[in-house]
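Per reviewer request, we include the raw input and output of the structure prediction for the construct analysed in the revised manuscript.
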Amino acid sequence: MMRCAVFVMWSSVLVLPATARLRADDTPVRPNILLIVADDMGWADVGYHNAEIRSPNLDRLCAAGIELDQHYVQPQCTPTRVALLTGRYPSRFGRHCTQASNLQAIPIGTPTLASVLKRAGYDTALSGKWHLGSKPEWGPNHYGFNHSYGSLAGAVGMYDHRYRLTKPEYTRTWHRDETFVDEAGHATDLVTREAVRWIEARREGPFFLYVPYHSVHVPLVEEARWLEKNRHIASPDRRLFAAAVSHLDDAVGRLIKSLERSGQRDNTLIIFMSDNGGLHNHRGNVYPPPDPKLSNFSSNLPLRGQKSQTYEGGMRVPAFVLWPGHWKSRKETAVLHAVDWMPTLAHAAGTKLDHGFKPDGRDLWPLLTGKAAAAGPRTLYWVWGKNRKRVALRHGDWKIVRQDAQTEFELFNLKQDPYETTDLAPRMPEKLDELKTLFAQEKLKDAL
């Protein structure tokens, strides 16, 4: 009943006609949009946060753009992808969206970033990992993407391209426009090759290209050249992971070069983020081999926690945005979330959403353009796990966290204690109650 109700609500939301909004100089704001998402890249897993990591392309792009210092996502892959593409917290759609899942995440007819931009006149494509429904009938082409390529399911063998062998109904997953295909090559290279072809294809009007890489998620398999680039790292597990980062970084560089070759670099808005924090340990033999066991291979330091947790290390991720020739480089410290990109990019595309659509996110365009400062304190909300195992809420500088449904909330002041070392709940019961009230209000909006 609840899922049916959600479908009726979303299917009634319409996008208004794509008449381009104008900037102060009366030119339309309709850039191409390249949205790149790394998988399981922790806070200390990129060069501009950690000199140990070799990621020169990402470092240069971040330096030339706006580093998003407090960019939040959800604690795991499927939930973040729901938030990113719908502008809504995943718990609004049901329990199945609050952790990694092969089920159909959102009803067909739900407005997505792709469908909104498509109605605004954009050509839309996805190359990479979908993970919002692992059957063809739940794939990207049903949610606004004109073209799709990669895996319908989650992580795959890097050369095998199959999902977990223990899930036979989802094992075969590599596809082009929802027709299964068999191709040779590393997943990172195949996704990049498809994206480059699509960037350089002739078309009328702007494009939206979503490139959610499988890397640097396990299983990790890398060639000697990437390992050699990271020979300075003593730990073999950390070295293998760093090699995957360097490979991914090179792939991003190839995307940028394709924009340059096709004369589209200056009119392409580029966004980069990770889908969640890094995973510390991996037991191995989960995905098609080789799938080695790994220990302490990724890092979120100095943040606390990791993937699937609602501490900062699970949800505050490396991120930046740049638009060459339009925005000056800077570090933006305002609190942002993946749900913000739906209203923001609708604005960039010169379209707006019907008043019946109520995103959880904010339109960041005035902030990014420098025309407005960040609005007042905002509230962010997280639910992870089908039984609401791990939850959190941030309001202004204050945050409450609960890592198990049977435990009490912890309270942190992130301005004074960004690494969540001191639980203030015993000393500040009134502040704790204030945030718990806000949490209860958000919970009422959930479809679970």
